[in-house]
Design goal:
With 376 residues, this protein is an alpha/beta fold. The protein has 14 helices and twelve strands. It has two domains: 227 residues, Spore Coat Polysaccharide Biosynthesis Protein SpsA, Chain A (Alpha-Beta Complex), CATH 3.90.550.10; 104 residues, no CATH class.
Length: 376
């Protein structure tokens, strides 16, 4: 069941943009998030806050905003998770364009104005902007996001398949008629629900508008409550493999070989380093699940040695494929202790490989240790 609190706008029957904000135990952050939305230069918007059964004051805070500003509507539901909360918010959204904002993050003041203008200019049903991290008073950029959003304009996913790596829900606008016609929704009761849905959206959109303008501040939380800080659990890794599988299925069904190749080698491996750091302290069950997943997605016929991961992670990936836990743990611990690239050894044939004390290179496939020309 759900209950709705708020006042329908009277000046305009259809807002330009609806932004859905799921809120679960985010009372500390929610006011700043809502202030960033209500302070947008684009005024014709509605903000649909979904109180996902919060146990703190999140729901009451949202109700207070709805009492003061007719652009805010609040939907109170029993706790069902992020994907379900977003889907519930969509059912109440009335805007021409649909956007999302996590309740602990911020949108830049001109974000919606810029994204709507981009959508109009490019006639694209899906547009995406750049992101920076929110770390106290710092706003560091993300080099890989800068690369994907380097130029403003329209493109197709065939033009830039690596854009599939911009999996975030919240730096985008979706034209609502496109969202509905494409049958888009967020997977429910699973972590990392962004990737399957954004992947499907890119593949269905045809034209995609991209801008280098920063539209979103992504907060770094160090309290352990962020989903992305729970990667050492079996449940987390299970969900990661599931959502990767869903996204890969969509890409393979799209049927463009070049897109599939980039997705496998550049996009799918992108977050594996965040899992490899857990190897030294992981449970046997987690390790077995890691091996199974790595073999499924990159297997002996492809291998993470052919991916765009940095050298230490390619080596660890190969050791995972070979089920060599002790050696993978050795490399992971050594790389973390260095805080710098692995040492290098020049070989007689002019090539260069990495070096890890205690790991016998004679027992490792040469491609797992060899540096590429641009890495030497």
């Amino acid at each position: 069941m759900s209950t709705v609190r708020g006042v329908f706008r009277r000046r305009r029957s259809t807002p330009q943009v609806s932004v859905v904000v799921p809120a679960y135990d985010v009372a500390e952050y929610l006011p700043a998030c809502l202030d960033s939305l209500l302070g947008q230069t684009l005024r014709e918007l509605e903000v649909v806050v979904v109180d996902d059964g919060a146990t703190d004051d999140s729901g009451a805070i949202a109700d207070g905003y709805a009492d003061r500003d007719p652009r805010v509507r609040v939907v109170h539901i029993d706790n069902r998770g992020l994907g379900a909360a977003r889907n519930e918010g969509i059912r109440h959204a009335r805007g021409e364009y649909l956007g999302f904002c996590d309740a602990d993050d911020l949108m830049t003041p001109r974000a919606l104005e810029l994204l709507v203008a981009l959508a109009r200019e490019t006639d694209a049903p899906l547009v995406t902007g750049n992101v920076v991290r929110l770390e106290g008073d710092r706003r560091p950029g993300l080099p890989w996001m800068n690369r994907l959003h380097a130029e403003r304009g329209p493109l197709t996913i065939d033009d830039l398949p690596e854009l599939l790596g911009d999996v975030f829900a919240w730096n985008k606008l979706f034209r609502r008629d496109f969202w509905d016609e494409a049958g888009l929704s967020w997977p429910e009761r699973i972590r990392y629900e962004d990737q399957p849905t954004t992947t499907h959206a890119y593949l269905r959109a045809g034209r995609i508008g991209v801008t280098p303008d920063v539209v979103y501040h992504w907060r770094v939380r160090h309290d352990g409550s962020s989903i992305t800080q729970q990667r050492a659990t079996v449940a987390d890794l299970t969900d990661r493999w599931t959502t990767k599988r869903m996204a890969l299925t969509s890409v393979e069904e799209y049927g463009v070989a070049g897109v599939t190749e980039v997705f496998r080698d550049r996009v799918l491996p992108g977050d594996m380093g965040q899992y490899f750091v857990n190897i030294p302290d992981c449970s046997e069950e987690w390790w077995d699940l890691l091996v199974t997943g790595v073999r499924e997605f990159w297997g002996p016929e492809r291998s993470l040695t052919g991916s765009t991961l940095p050298p230490a992670q390619r080596l660890i990936g190969w050791l995972v494929e070979e089920d060599r836990r002790a050696d993978a743990s050795l490399v992971s611990s050594y790389a973390r202790s260095l805080g710098a690239p692995l040492p290098r050894v020049a070989l007689g044939d002019g090539s260069v490989r990495v070096d890890v004390p205690g790991l016998d290179p004679a027992t490792v496939a040469p491609e797992a240790m060899r540096l590429r020309d641009h890495e030497t």
